[in-house]
């Protein structure tokens, strides 16, 4: 004789409890089922919850300089393309401060000139590279009627050498030393880009330095509204290479950039740096977006459009992050 099977229909948690109460005795099976039903929603929530977003703080520079424009565009791309990433931009004094923030764990990505980084990094550095992004050109800006026509004309004059903690300050200090203008031979003030422009416009300084990718918006705005001159510095590049770092190279500032006379100046590479502890998969994806969204980045600033996978890998002496290296190997620059 066959066993008659009874179909059990789904019952709510309250009905299970009521049935047990009517029976007048505890039911181990019912209690266990109620427990499962109570726990199930939390298990489902855990499975579907993506967790806290990954915070990516990008250390940049002045709001009117290239690092900031580049960083803002990169943050927009990361927030759009990486669902579990929350990217934001930090306004800083630029290179030196950016490296400090990265080392202190107060930023995850940051831009820096090559000449402020250690020439001989440690075997296990806390900060490594994602890419060489473009070259910074050192600007020496003065008014059109200024007697400052060469670097040595700065002797005895009041000059902004860049903000404290900036790459500009590092490069200019080395440049003034090789030109025998160190010490008190130049009246130095440390102003950021925007304050330097304002001080020159108001006659509070005779000239200012700034290192940035072409074109620097604040310089372009000043030159558009004021008769101005950019002073040639190219003749000092060889001396800088001999006495300081081999990263320095001569680069031209064509007339088409600012509408001023064409000059040659000192340039050095810029790197996008990253904390070494960031996961390889995340850094690989950031690198991929950096390279494959170059047109969008270039719309924010033309300097970003000069990147390529082939030039991006030239970050010596700073090693590439393994995630970045994985991308470049796959893309075969």
TrEMBL record:
InterPro entries reported in the protein's UniProt record: TRAP_TAXI
UniProt xrefs under PANTHER family: SLL1037 PROTEIN
This protein's name: C4-dicarboxylate ABC transporter substrate-binding protein
Organism ancestry: Bacteria, Bacillati, Actinomycetota, Actinomycetes, Micromonosporales
């Amino acid at each position: 004789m066959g066993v008659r099977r009874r179909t059990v229909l789904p019952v709510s948690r309250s009905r299970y409890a009521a049935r047990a109460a009517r029976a007048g005795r505890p039911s181990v099976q019912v209690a266990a089922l109620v427990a499962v039903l109570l726990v199930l929603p939390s298990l489902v929530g855990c499975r579907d919850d993506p967790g806290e977003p990954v915070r990516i703080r990008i250390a940049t520079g002045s709001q009117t300089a290239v690092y900031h424009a580049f960083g803002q565009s990169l943050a927009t791309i990361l927030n759009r393309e990486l669902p579990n990433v929350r990217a934001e931009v930090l306004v800083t004094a630029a290179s030196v401060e950016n490296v400090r923030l990265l080392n202190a764990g107060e930023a995850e990505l940051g831009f820096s000139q090559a000449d402020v980084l250690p020439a001989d990094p440690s075997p296990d550095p806390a900060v490594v590279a994602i890419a060489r992004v473009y070259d910074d050109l050192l600007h020496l800006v003065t008014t059109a009627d200024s007697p400052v026509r060469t670097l040595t004309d700065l002797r005895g004059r009041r000059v902004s050498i860049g903000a404290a903690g900036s790459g500009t300050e590092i490069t200019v200090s080395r440049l003034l030393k090789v030109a025998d203008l160190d010490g008190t031979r130049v009246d130095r003030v440390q102003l950021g880009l925007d304050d330097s422009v304002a001080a020159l416009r108001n006659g509070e300084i005779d000239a200012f330095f700034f290192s940035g990718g072409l074109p620097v918006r604040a310089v372009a705005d000043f030159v558009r509204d004021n008769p101005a001159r950019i002073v040639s510095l190219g003749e000092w590049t060889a001396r800088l290479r001999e006495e300081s770092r081999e990263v320095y190279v001569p680069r031209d500032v064509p007339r088409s950039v600012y509408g001023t006379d064409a000059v040659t100046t000192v340039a050095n590479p810029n790197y996008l740096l990253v904390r070494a502890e960031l996961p390889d998969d995340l850094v690989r994806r950031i690198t991929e977006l950096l390279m494959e969204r170059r047109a969008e980045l270039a719309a924010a600033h033309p300097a970003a459009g000069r990147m390529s996978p082939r030039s991006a890998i030239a970050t010596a002496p700073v090693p590439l992050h393994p995630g970045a290296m994985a991308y470049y190997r796959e893309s075969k620059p």
